[in-house]
From TrEMBL:
InterPro entries: LysR_HTH_N, LysR_subst-bd, WH-like_DNA-bd_sf, WH_DNA-bd_sf. It comes from Aurantiacibacter marinus. Residues 6-63 form the HTH lysR-type domain. This is LysR family transcriptional regulator. Pfam families: HTH_1 (PF00126), LysR_substrate (PF03466).
Length: 298
């Protein structure tokens, strides 16, 4: 058995460097100086007797062994965090720190409604929010940077537990002077794929919109350019095309002071599911279910 065991701090430094690929940014994210982070990783390498990171003036490159150690370090750090969570979960529920990632097509529309009540009714809960696209949010969850994720399904999440919060219907948004006089519910076949504006890759709402329409040709024809739903609305308001919006955003007033009209998309699969997900077998599962109840009460 080795006479030396890496410290949690050294593993945190190594994982941070792997994530950011830059000593300065990794040190900033770890709240230490660059020299402290670099020294911690060098000490780890020295005591293990191996090289984990190849350094040059411009490039940080992990060795194959370094990548394997990082993968194991993620698991060790996650287990360490779950040990702390186990103790915390034994105390008062929904208290202490909780890190939640939220996707951009939910965060600005749902959070302003629920956060004031959470702060009022759960004053001991310190909720740290991080807005990320779905793929980055799930990566943060499995790497231990987030405790839970609020996102829209369907989406590939890996092994997680799920609590569905609500169904969120999809609407078609278009300029109010659209000459075609759309009906009260818009069938997918009526959508002009050449005018359809969608969020860029990385946003699951793009996939939900395309799946709801069930028209494969849309994937090639639609313009995937928007960085946010607000950007898409402004583009539609300026006559550049039409888009698809979730009811959540419309209810939150995203169309206020615009000349954009929205009508429901007609069909049997024209919604997304808003869900809270967390790692399977987390010791805080009961707490996350309680949080899901709070979100439903929104």
């Amino acid at each position: 058995m080795s006479t030396y065991l890496p410290t949690i701090k050294q593993l945190q430094y190594l994982v941070s460097l792997h994530e950011y690929g830059h000593f300065g940014r990794a040190a900033e994210a770890s709240f230490v100086s660059q020299s402290t982070l670099s020294a911690g990783i060098r000490e780890l390498e020295s005591l293990l007797g191996v090289t984990l990171v190849e350094r040059s003036r411009r490039v940080v490159r992990f060795t194959p062994l370094g990548n394997n150690v990082v993968a194991k370090a993620h698991r060790v750090l996650r287990e360490t965090e779950e040990l702390a969570e186990l103790v915390q979960a034994a105390g008062k529920p929904l208290s202490g720190e909780l890190r939640m990632s939220v996707i951009p097509t939910i965060a600005p529309f749902l959070l302003p409604r629920i956060l004031p009540r959470l702060r009022r009714e759960r004053p001991q809960l310190k909720l740290f929010l991080r807005e990320e696209t779905s793929d980055h949010a799930i990566e943060s969850l499995h790497h231990g940077r987030a405790d839970c994720v609020l996102l829209a399904l369907p989406f590939a999440t890996g092994e997680v537990e799920v609590e569905v919060i609500a169904k969120d219907e999809l609407f078609v948004a278009f300029p109010k002077d659209d000459p075609r006089d759309p009906p009260a519910e818009i069938p997918p076949g009526m959508i002009d794929e050449g005018r359809l504006l969608l969020l860029e890759d990385g946003h699951c709402l793009k996939e939900h919109a395309l799946a709801a329409c069930n028209r494969p040709e849309m994937r090639a024809s639609a313009t995937m350019i928007g960085t946010s739903l607000h950007t898409l609305v402004q583009m539609v308001d300026n006559g550049l095309g039409l888009t698809m919006l979730p009811k959540m955003a419309i209810d939150a007033g995203i169309l206020h002071e615009t000349d954009v009209v929205a009508r429901p998309l007609k069909g049997g699969n024209t919604h997304r599911e808003i869900a809270l997900v967390w790692r399977t077998n987390s010791p805080r599962s009961d707490e996350f279910r309680l949080l899901a109840d709070e979100l439903r009460a929104g």
